[in-house]
Amino acid sequence: MRFEILDINGNVINTIKASAEFMAANFPPADIIPEPVIPDPVYDADGNLVEPVPAPEPVPEYDIDGNLIEPPAPVYETYVQYRVVAETDTAPVLTVSMAQAQKALVLSGVALSSVQAALEAIVDPTERELALIDWNKSPTVSSDSDLVVSMAEALSLTADDVTALFELAESL
After folding, report:
1. What digits encode the pLDDT tens for the residues 86-138?
2. Do residues 77 and 131 both lie within one domain?
3. Which residues, at least 6 apart from 120, have a Cβ–Cβ distance to it below 8 Å?
4. Most Cβ neighbours (<10 Å): which of 32, 138, 153, 168?
């Protein structure tokens, strides 16, 4: 499945392909994520905002041999949650020739120039070049490939749209 990883404000910070078991083991469900705690401002008697006093620097500790004891790494309360983007595990993986895929796009009303534009719009130059190689040089394409997943997202195609395109492509 594809999942969008969200920060505490609900902004997408990453998209990954993973199993539901992996997500449950590594990311908390949305219902246990606490709301951020924002302290109320404190004012003095004259109504001036009192700035919080920073915590003092920790005093270094040493073991019996005089070696510095490293303090534990800080625990940051940066909670993230996730949501399912596409359940690619439930749809059959179909593989067709690139010519069949491109014909199916055209017959379905998706202009090849819009695919080319979406490929050119990939921000990361390495990812863009790799996607262009797949689009221009690969003899076949699978419905679960990174190219198809990214182009489906760029062209606002649902998982059902992708399945229908590949079924059409198989019939050509």
Report:
1. 554 456 788 899 999 999 999 999 888 999 998 999 888 888 899 899 889 98
2. no
3. 128
4. 168
